[in-house]
Amino acid sequence: MSEYMRIPLQYKKYFKIAGIVLGVLLILSVIAGAIAYSKREAILKELIQKAKLKAKRDYNLNLTINNPHFEGLRTIAFSDVAIVPENRDSLVLIRDLHIGVKLMPLLFGNIKLLGLRVSEARVNLVKRDSLRNYDFLFKKKKTDSTERGKADYAELANNLLNQLLYKIPDEMDVRNFKLTIIRDDEQFNFNTTSAIIKDGQLKSRILINGNESIWHLDGLVEASDQKLDIKLYAENKKVELPLLEKKFGVKINFDTVYTQLKNTKKDGDEFHIYGSWAIRNLLINHPKIAANDIIIPSGSIDADILIGRNFLAIDSSSVIHLKNIEARPFIKYTLGTFKKYELKLKTDDLDAQELFNSFPTGLFESLEGIKVAGKLRYDLDFSLDARNPDSVRFSSSLYPSGFRILQWGKTNLAKINSPFVYTPYEFGKPMRDITVGPKNPDYTPINEISPDLRNALLTSEDPSFYSHRGFVERSIRRSIATNFKEKAFKRGGSTISMQLVKNVFLIRQKTLARKIEEILIVWLIENNHVSTKQRMYEVYLNIIEWGRNVYGIGEAARYYFSKKPSELSIGESIFLASIVPRPKSSLYYFLYDGSLRTSLRGYFRLIGNLMAERGYTMRDSSAYGFYNVRLRESLRPEAPVDSMQVDSLFEFEDMEEGGLLRDIFKIPQKDTVRQEEEIKKAILADTTLTRSEKRKLKRDMKRKEKESDN
Fold first, then answer.
1. Residue 673 pLDDT more than 50?
2. What phi and psi, each to the nearest 5 degrees, are found at residue 322?
3. Direct distance between the N- and C-terminal alpha carbons of the chain, in angstroms, rounded to an integer
4. CA torsion through residues 510, 512, 516, 517, sign
5. pTM exceeds cut of 0.85
6. CA dihedral sign of residues 282, 288, 289, 291
């Protein structure tokens, strides 16, 4: 008996139904295919006509295509394709173009590439003066006011990436594709002599500016599976990017760069891109980054990129590799009316020597060759909300475990413990050599420097110097908030330790590398007790600039007051502390008789009150020695014909009491009462006072207001 006969009767009817359904589907598929085949030429012409109209309407482009037609079942052929922007240089010329497409998507107006064959194509990107033939790429579409601010970046990224992958052909053969970039009198040529995709393998050969260099873009391309694994490298030399150097002044070259798309996923309102990016022997040179070439032998990131409705992020599951060390980053940028910036970076316990060995060559010159032992762990946490910059969150910590320094590198950081030669620089040029030690007659041990000077400078520059370990995160947070609000660098967060390191060990160029190196050296000195606080402060007082070609407290005391550092009064000490941030403007504050301009009186009271709060001096109602300061006679300006008239001019040109404070705190001119209120708020918010100190200062202000009213 056949197997079919053994099947129960009630199930046989289901087999019949299934057979009928399959038959109907087969017939419908044949009918749909026949309809699609018969209408494909009409559909093609309609799509091309729509493309021409859209190009002209939306971008003012003239698109011409000769003899579009099908070759075989799925291949479309074009001849002499041209795209010319209105009244601009020709943008695209293609002599012969063959595109293999899937028919079913074509019915719905979409093109899925199965194959691509291009012969003799040319793309010209031309910029002459302010005119560009690719301006249409930056044209903003008009949007309805109700749609503004409602962009879903996750959906947008998902669609863009899928469209990109959709347009990568399964098979490709490109010959003599030339890209020319013309910027006024400069020209760059990229000639792809061949680019082939076959069985998922990409091979290409690109000539740069004739035979100046040969690039290769090779790898695995499986767009249908959302997988790419591609590398870019040059033949027998490095890949160089002269366009970036010409436009932005940054020199970049590398051996090989890798990119790998592993997968994508839409998860609710978030779109994930999983991939890896790596580079070998990267060289970077830019005057704002470092004074010399920075070389990264190897670096990579395995990243989970998150794109939400209104944010872009690199998830904390991502891993950065730099030589033999790893770190986990979290970066998030929230868009909208008020932007938000978040950054976290964490590591596990790292071998300290491996960490120092991983630093890019040329980044930290003074530490090259250093030998260390033990382990280090790093933790960074930063967040800034543009709605409330003052609430900025910042913490940066390097945690040691059994860490110790075995041998100094290029620079011996312990040299500050013994006499050494210091060379100050002005505009990149050395001024003169200064011996920091007893052989210099102007060198002054710290116990021979007036306590008033030591305390005034600590109060104005770094009140917690003797208690912190090189950094004051509260000051750094204030600096970040202030600079963000001002959209410029208006305030630094440097401690005395940082200023000392900057002067003694580093070049004076303002670069990103120098600032990071400064922070690292401060940590090494402070956390490993390379020097005592007392010695660091002594060196600092003997090397900092106090005026034009005036360095160290010994020279400063003699230059301004013909005194020894031990003889300085509280008024002279507060004055010298006031000019440290702006030493070259020091003589401006004196009148013809050697007395100080009244504009500095508010500063004296501020610093004097703070010193009194800390027990450094007695309370003084007469501005803490302000009236007793006298510049030595040979430095005084010539007496004006009408001294009262000149002094009154200064009084009315924002030189009245508190004028310097207004300059420091960037307080605009207002009516007198509001000015004073703004100054008080700024003082209370911008000092490192404790709560009790602030309360006392407020009481003093109220008392002085009553005295003034009486």
1. no
2. -130, 105
3. 124
4. negative
5. no
6. positive
